[in-house]
From TrEMBL:
Recorded family membership: Belongs to the LysR transcriptional regulatory family.
GO molecular function term, any single one: DNA-binding transcription factor activity
Highest taxon listed in the record's lineage: Bacteria
Keywords: DNA-binding, Transcription, Transcription regulation
PROSITE patterns: HTH_LYSR
Keyword hit for Transmembrane: no
Protein name per the record: Transcriptional regulator, LysR family
A UniProt-annotated Pfam family: HTH_1
Entry's Gene Ontology cellular component terms: cytosol
Signal sequence residues: none
Residue span(s) of domain HTH lysR-type: 7-63
Length: 213
């Protein structure tokens, strides 16, 4: 089996820039290189591959071979960057596992995008996520089962440090025939004696009898 051509990651980056920007001048500016230097990099890559990547009459247009190379080159550069990030994390104690707990609503609606961003920034860190109600999340933090939690403050334990991240609203759901159905807002005091089905979080309102829904 013949040896693979000696092509650096810089060659691949230059190839991707020219292919995506469709301009040697723009690619050179993006790479902070002179245009002759970038053209030389592309020629070196073509010579080592043994095939032209761009049409001779129109250097901004990919050949069929160049089109076939494009997704592979992009995959290689992305893989290189992931591995480099992981190695950098290991070298700087950035690897490990982050364990956290969250209430279900946050875990469903807020965390997916945040987790995706975190994974891109810290690819060497493994994430473990548990969901529970607010009281359960706080108990897991206190027990050392997780490193941090996202929830409403329930236990008011002095050992916990709470940092507000966002505000949410409580709502009352009742049958349309109920006397309260026509009301725009109600206070906790007005519904305190009614049979309720709710989460642990609604118990917080017991401390605020004038709180309105």
């Amino acid at each position: 089996m013949p040896a693979a051509p000696d092509i650096s990651i810089t060659h691949y980056r230059h190839f991707l820039l020219v292919a995506e920007l469709r301009s040697f001048r723009a690619a050179a500016a993006r790479a902070f290189r002179s245009q002759p230097a970038l053209s030389l990099s592309i020629r070196e890559m073509e010579q080592r591959l043994g095939q032209p990547l761009f049409e001779r009459g129109n250097r901004n247009t990919l050949t069929r071979f160049g089109q076939d190379c494009l997704p592979l080159a992009r995959e290689l550069v992305e893989h290189h960057d992931r591995v480099a990030g992981a190695l950098f994390g290991l070298a700087n104690n950035g690897a490990g596992t982050l364990t956290m707990a969250s209430v279900a609503t946050v875990a469903t609606h807020w965390l997916p995008e945040l987790v995706a961003t975190y994974r891109e920034r810290y690819p060497a860190v493994a994430l473990r996520l548990f969901d529970d109600n607010s009281e359960g999340v706080e108990r897991m933090v206190l027990a050392g089962e997780v490193e941090l939690g996202v929830c409403s403050p329930v236990l008011r334990d002095r050992r916990l440090s709470f940092e507000p991240l966002l505000r949410d609203a409580f709502g009352l759901v009742c049958h349309r025939g109920h006397p309260l159905a026509a009301r725009k807002s109600v206070t906790w005091r007005e519904i305190a004696d009614l049979p309720l089905v709710g989460t642990v979080a609604h118990r917080q309102l017991a401390d605020y009898p004038q709180a309105a829904f």
